């Protein structure tokens, strides 16, 4: 068992060891973050449950009292508030403004609420104009929901080019990686900013800088980014970004968001043809919807100019109420930059301790190439599954090994306990490698 302090490696934002002159200030910062997030740990009651260790934030984080209070208030309003729907509509618009602030969108009109990431991705995918023989580029380890969205268009003549990366291990993709697969008929690139299975952080900004000036749209899945790290969609330069709110933003399932940059939407609308209709047309998408809700076939059909054209009138209002509450907490109390630094510290320590134990880290180790909250260990899932479950450890077993993912509520004590379980398993003779 661990009988000494865990490794407290001090690193720069690029992952290199710092000089001794930086160590004093770094230690002060570590202490500040530790104290700050210790205060908020009680907001997630399950993490204090004896016999349970929640290290699965990238998949299904435990809920928190901020969201619980918002849902309870929603239920109370449904019971006793005669004008509850108007209250929830106000909460929806407040949440939209907070989301725009969270990702630094141009404004709330650039945000549409969706059911989940898939709906957001599909809405943009189905809006990108293409002719038979045109192509899109994705990596071979991309999330299925992004890949399938493009692959479903192959019967219409779209070529989907998969960039081979799996044989090279877990690598962060940049513009140079994609360049050989991009040509004059490439219409879009689909990429996750942070990969769900390998935890690598792709160079989305570099990809956009290289290919957006050529008229190639870049659609990003940022589900493993929003809520886990600071994000600026304008600095990234993406055409569109889709994400669910139930992971990093800790909301109930059933609510997501789609960001579409005004410039990308203008390109689509000025492509020489009438603006394409949303994949699923809802009256909320129609700019000239009549107040009496009567539809006249001889009247023009005008879409909202922003992302709102992809939105449905009936959405998860309980989801947006929860989103409004948690976004305020995330932006004003936790702070995106502090969350990112806190999570990097946890994975830094886990990486160092894994190295001490001889456990290979499959995901990238340099900060600039990895998600702050994800660490993949090269452990045989079949060998370790029973031990981890017996110890109450909640992780994800995937094709690469064991994925550990931290949330704002995790602490160094969680890393310490997990390392103790690793040591116990190694003592029992469990395989370190598959």
Note the main attributes of this structure.
seven-stranded mixed β-sheet, alpha/beta, globular, about 40% helix
Task: Write a structural description.
- Strands 2-8-7-6-5-3-4 form a seven-stranded mixed β-sheet, with helices on both faces. Strands 9-12-11 form a three-stranded antiparallel β-sheet, covered by helices on one side.
- The chain is built from 13 helices and twelve strands.
- It has helices at 20-40, 65-80, 84-103, 117-125, 144-151, 175-178, 204-211, 233-236, 262-269, 317-334, 336-357, 381-390, 412-427, and strands spanning 53-54, 111-114, 135-139, 159-163, 186-192, 217-221, 240-244, 256-260, 374-377, 393-394, 396-398, 401-405.
- The longest helix is centred in the last third of the chain and has 22 residues, at 336-357.
- The chain has 434 residues and is an alpha/beta fold.
- The mean pLDDT is 93.
- Helices cover 38% and strands 12% of the residues.
The rough form would be described as globular
Strand residue percentage: 5-15%
Distance between the termini: 23 Å
How many helices in DSSP terms?
A: 13
**What would the average pLDDT be, to the nearest integer?**
93
Q: Level of helix content? A: 25-40%
Structural category: alpha/beta
- Name the helix and strand elements from N-terminus to C-terminus, one letter apiece: HEHHEHEHEHEHEHEEHHHEHEEEH
Assembly of the depicted chains = single chain
Low-confidence stretches: none
Biggest pleated-sheet summary: 7 strands, mixed
| Neighbour order of strands in the largest sheet | 2-8-7-6-5-3-4
Using the CA coordinates, give the radius of gyration. 23 Å
E-strand count: 12
